[in-house]
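User: quick one - fold this with 2-acetamido-2-deoxy-beta-D-glucopyranose bound?
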Amino acid sequence: MEHLNKALTALFATLLLLAPLLMATDPDPLQDFCVADLNGKPSVNGYPCQPSSSAGDEFLFSTKIASGGDPLANPNGSNVTELDVNEWPGLNTLGVSMNRVDFAPGGTNPPHIHPRATEVGMVTRGELLVGIIGTLDSGNRYYSKVVHAGETFVIPRGLMHFQFNVGKEPATMVVSFNSQNPGIIFVPLTLFGSSPPIPTPVLVKALRVDAEVVELLKSKFTGGY
Ligand SMILES: *[C@@H]1O[C@H](CO)[C@@H](O)[C@H](O)[C@H]1NC(C)=O
Ligand SMILES: *[C@@H]1O[C@H](CO)[C@@H](O)[C@H](O)[C@H]1NC(C)=O
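Assistant: Sure. Structure tokens for the protein plus 2-acetamido-2-deoxy-beta-D-glucopyranose:
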């Protein structure tokens, strides 16, 4: 009995000591979701690590965004060269990643959201209209500025935003994120190109237009672009 009491006291003391740790928040998710495998072996939030002996210094360097893609290869007039953990395995667990986006004149990086990261960026060539729309807390406020080469901007995590090349010349920006996998939700694609599609009556009611308008918009995004 005395043993049991001592054991319980020790357990209680340990729990008290651990309390601050136990109250810490969960780590942020690094993927859209991670359905529990109730019989699985323990895994990690992200990718498992290679043994450090096989990770040479090349993992810490990348040339991926030294050049950009062709912005005229798709209807947006912009081309995103991604540099997240999937392109640069050395970023795993470090909580950062980058992108380069090249724009033709009049090209846009359409309205989108990064669910897992704040974005800071610099326009390195040309001039881009950067627009950010606040949540209802801000009264849906539209914040915008034409950002020139050498100037910077920040997009708070989760806010919808876009870039648009208002110049006569091609434009380029380089951005970084405080997540190894920021994720992207393209608003037009999300509404009109989901797979399977959102039922048309939902969009008719939500957007206050006729079904033909919704069908037309859906027809523009069936290919993912
Ligand atoms: C981006 O540009 C490259 C060529 O540099 C092209 O191969 C690729 O298809 C383009 N991507 C998109 C999505 O337009
Ligand atoms: C073009 O924009 C649409 C959303 O409007 C998006 O789904 C698509 O991935 C974009 N394409 C490129 C190449 O960025």
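One thing worth noting: The chain has two domains: 52-183, 190-220.
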